Fold this sequence. Notes:
Largest sheet: none
Structural class: mainly alpha
Low-confidence stretches: none
Mean pLDDT: 82
Distance between the termini: 28 Å
Number of strands: 0
Helix content: over 70%
Shape: elongated
Amino acid sequence: MRNDEIVEKIIETNRDVKWIRTEIAGIKENEKELERRITAIGMQNPPLRAGGVSERQVSAGIGAGAGSIAAVILRLFGG
């Protein structure tokens, strides 16, 4: 590999890392917003059973996490 090709790869990798960091920060912000919304809903409608996390909260968390991860993977592999 020539020096200019190596430099080009380094620059491309640096851009990719910056993009990944930005996407992860966005995902974390979305998670915080979802947690705020879940908390607000929970305060409006307290669970009938004492303590614990409701199945809806768990499902919402899993769905949000899976969707976020899928979006990042698709973006990384050109989807």
